[in-house]
Design brief:
Elements: E1 3-12, H1 17-28, E2 34-39, E3 45-54, H2 56-68, E4 72-77, E5 83-94, H3 100-109, E6 113-117, E7 121-128, H4 130-140, E8 145-150, E9 154-157
Antiparallel strand pairs: 1-3, 1-4, 2-3, 5-7, 5-8, 5-9, 6-7
């Protein structure tokens, strides 16, 4: 059974690590749904959050292969309910004068922010888990989505 998996991978923070990790996925034909990387509280370490869909056997193989990499310090699966994940989305939506108030109301309901306004569009910034961002995109789709950019998941284990 295919399921969604989010891996939090602590790695050495130096040149070439990202290329080696993504190369591992490429060589074995694993598709990455999203990838975000940033430095941690320790400037010598970075944390990669990798989201993918795979079956149990493939997920276990990926974890073991990541653990074997010399630049990898720790691999943790972020399980729903035991972790917090977020994604940052910027979405530019067509906004006619007639639709503008509806879009502003929807934006407020989702606790999103309007970060740019033009005569024909609004740009909305939204942060949340994947279900929230997907729900927002589905609701504004009928207005006309002009552009979307997503940061990829970030997350940490609770506690």
């Amino acid at each position: 059974m295919i399921r969604r998996c989010v891996l939090s991978t602590l790695v050495e923070n130096h040149a070439g690590v990202l290329s080696r990790i993504t190369g591992l996925f490429t060589r074995r034909g694993y598709n990455i749904d999203s990838l975000s990387v940033g430095v941690t509280e320790n400037p010598d370490l970075s944390r990669m959050t990798i989201a993918l869909h795979a079956d149990e056997q493939t997920i276990e193989q990926i974890k073991k292969q990541l653990d074997k990499q010399v630049d990898v310090i720790e691999v943790t699966e972020l399980e729903a309910g035991q972790s917090v994940t977020r994604e940052h989305v910027l979405i530019k939506v067509k906004a006619t004068p007639e639709d503008r108030m509806s879009l502003i109301s929807i934006t407020n309901i989702f606790r999103a922010n309007i970060v740019d306004v033009s005569s024909e569009s609004l740009m909305v910034e939204l942060t949340g888990d994947s279900s929230k961002t997907e729900a927002f995109i589905e609701i504004v789709k009928p207005f006309g989505i002009l552009q979307v950019v997503r940061s990829g998941l970030t997350g940490l284990k609770r506690g």
